[in-house]
Protein 1
Amino acid sequence: MRTVPRVACINDLSGFGRCSLTTALPVLSVMGVQACPAPTAVLSKHTGFPQYTFTDLTDTLTDYFESWSDLDFDWIYAGFLGSLGQIGIVRRFFEMQKRKNPACKILLDPVMGDEGRRYSTYTLELCDAVRELVSEADVITPNITEACLLTGTEYRGECLHLHEAEQLAEALMQLGCGAAVITGIVQENQIGNLTYLDGKASYSAVHRTECLFSGTGDLFASVLCGALARGKSLPDAVASAGAFLSEVTQDTLRQNTPAAEGVLFEPLLYRLGGILDGEEQGK
Ligand code: PXL
């Protein structure tokens, strides 16, 4: 086993707005994980801003992954996919990596939308194709909107009873993933995540801030990926990611910055290194 786990990060590079690769790379590095980016698109800002540039990198990805055919990864973390053509390419990369290293695990964050709406670049066709990738994943981390889009369930807001969230998770499991974590379930002043693993659901919640910052899903999935790659169990990794998200969103709220600029994780990033060190030293 490698002393520094190696993760392939398939996601977009957005120049402004703290999401996707600009979140995943610092988070994984500080958690002691080697993050190897495979950019799916380059945007000047994420799509939550009124204007941005978008350069689709589908045409580069096949060669990019081909040149990685001599490498093997401990985890693959896939997020925002920029076009329909990318789904097949990413799927072939998953298959190739699983052949090379059967222990390679896949974390798929099916980035498609939020608050009941699809992101502007996400067509229904693209959503259908993402569903196919779910069957390859060991862990998926949809928010409620994405879980509804994947399962064809009507979206009825962010407040879900736990039995409804559990039903949604069961429907996600039918798509063939190994485990599902539904993020952002609101209950009064709490926000929580439902983890469905080995036929059982567990729920953990933290204090909720009133403001929804862009890129929180990416931050959650990145911390989760770092913790999993460093050997934490899924329930422990979900609890760590949830606790970190709660701290940084409360801190961001106090700074009074525009929600589209994302979560100000930089001042608290160093604490992620400590999450794992403390545990290793039995603290
Ligand atoms: O945070 C999810 C995300 C990722 N990538 C891009 C986005 C968004 C959300 O708006 O626009 C490009």
Protein 2
Amino acid sequence: MRHLLSVADLGPDGIEEVLRLTDNFVEVSARAIPRVPALRGKTVVSLFYEDSTRTRLSFETAAKRLNADTMNFSVSSSSVNKGESVRDTVTTIAAMGVDAIVVRHSSAGVPWQVARWTDAAVLNAGDGWHEHPTQALLDCYTIRERRGSLAGLRVAIVGDVKHSRVARSNVLAFSLLGADVTLVAPPTLLPPSLAGWPVAVSHDLDDVLPKADVVYLLRMQRERQTEALLPSLREYTALYGLTRDRAKLLGDDTIVMHPGPMNRGVEIAAEVADLPGAVITRQVANGVAVRMAVLFLILGSGGDLGG
Ligand code: NCD
């Protein structure tokens, strides 16, 4: 694997390979000193043009646990504010000698462009509404950890699908691993066309919840909504939020997931996020191990973890 741009590039076998390797890094992460020298001498830079807490820290932690050097580019304190283009920024960073660039940008496709402008490996950490492949991988890993496999599981992805790169990557990954995916959202929060999406659609959350093995809530992405798509947030929550009352419809083994950051009280009730079926902090913990696996697959040499 040279880059990680899209879940589609991995295919089912590629996803399985990452998930298998992740087991090793979950084990490494549980050690007293959670480090292996696998990427000693390699440099990983994060180039984030959009806000992030989890993804940025997770990639950095992953790189550090593999003993890579890390560089951190922050738009707010960089020459981007002096008008430097993405291309010039990438060329500048590449000239310092980096092995991998982790990119997040508000426009779809930017990681592909970056990959054309540099010899370094490029990892997509979220491009616009398009894709977020490492999120999908960590979500697959987290479901597998609880349920053994995704094959035949019924997964409901609920909420603002239209603006969600997490939804796009997860629909692909979950269906490649054999899950049945249902999108549950008001029509205004679905993409204008779902042609080619391997999904069913419902507008009735109460009907879907009792049958779901996994309920995946999306953040209401208000910063991406340029027009009024909802009568009110309160009405959204009443119809599509996982409220305390609605959570009673969930089966005993149903897993509740959210990519973060959560709007507690909007798409998920505060107390529901803390129920035993909610694996939201597990997703974050697994995110580090999954990103270690991805960095190792792309930058490691010869399959040796080095200890
Ligand atoms: C998501 C993102 O930025 O795509 N967060 C994340 O990476 N865990 C989801 C979101 O912003 O809603």
